[in-house]
Amino acid sequence: MPTHSQTQTAVLGALSIRPMTGYAVRENVQNVLGHFWSESFGQIYPTLAELEREGLVERQRSEHPRSSPFAPTAEGLTRLRELLSEPPQPSRPRNGLLLRLFFGRQLGVEACRQLITDARAQAETQLAQLVAEREQLTRDASLRDAAPYILITILAGEYGARASIAWADDALATLDELVAS
Predict the structure, then answer these.
(1) Helix (H) or strand (E) holding 40
(2) C-beta neighbour count of 48 within 10 angstroms
(3) pLDDT of amino acid 152
(4) Beta pairing class for 57-59 and 70-72
(5) Is the pLDDT of residue 1 over 70?
(6) Four-point Cα dihedral 92, 77, 13, 154, nearest 10
(7) What values do phi and psi take at 72, rounded to 5?
């Protein structure tokens, strides 16, 4: 699936949950999907315009035409199901932290320790945010039908954050052993 189609998938998917403005789509992608997916304003707005031209989304009436929410059309929901049925596009990971740690001999133990400690703190923050999202999800009646599916991705994020915390603890212990030897 080309990157363009993945952007369409993210935008149509967000709109399938509830109608949103372009800004709200971006916020939703950033705040809700952010632990596993990202899109920029530069990708979202052209995609919305293209989806509108193709009749896959339509603007809903609003007092402010520049902030009209978009909703998927029946054709848009069909397109979303087609996109979701395609195999996911593999992506190569790019992890700046691991790149730095791989060459950590050049940085030294204390700099590596700080990088790992910072990563651990970020994982703790992410875990707390995901737990809060999960709790909020259970209280949002408007998401009742989508909640089990959203919960699956939140749980993946929670497991990932817990794994990052455990990795950081092991990595710090490895550095401690290095210093002790």
Answers:
(1) none
(2) 23
(3) 95
(4) antiparallel
(5) no
(6) -100
(7) -70, 145
- Which helix H or strand E contains 72, and what residues bound it? strand 70-72
| Cα–Cα dist 146/151, whole Å | 9
**Cβ(21)–Cβ(67) under 8 Å?**
yes
| The pair of three-digit structure tokens given for residue 73, joined into one six-digit string | 């059309």
Distance between CA 6 and CA 38 in Å, rounded? 11
Q: Is the pLDDT assigned to residue 4 strictly greater than 70?
A: no
Is the model's pLDDT at 3 over the cut of 70? Answer: no
The pLDDT-based confidence of 90 (bands split at 50, 70, 90) is: confident
Burial 95-131 (b: 16+ CB within 10 A, else e): eeeeeebeebeeeeeeebbebbeebbeebeebbebbe
Ramachandran area for residue 55 (φ above 0: left; ψ -120 to 50: alpha; else beta): left
- The model's pLDDT over 157-173, given as tens digits with 9 standing for 90+, comes to 999 999 999 999 999 99
Question: Which tens digit of pLDDT belongs to each residue from 49-87?
Answer: 999 999 999 999 877 766 889 999 999 999 999 999 999
For the chain, the domains span 3-85, 96-180
Please, what CATH class does the domain formed by 3-85 belong to?
A: mainly alpha
Residue 70 is classified by DSSP as E
Identify the CA nearest to 11 among candidates 35, 40, 87, 36.
40
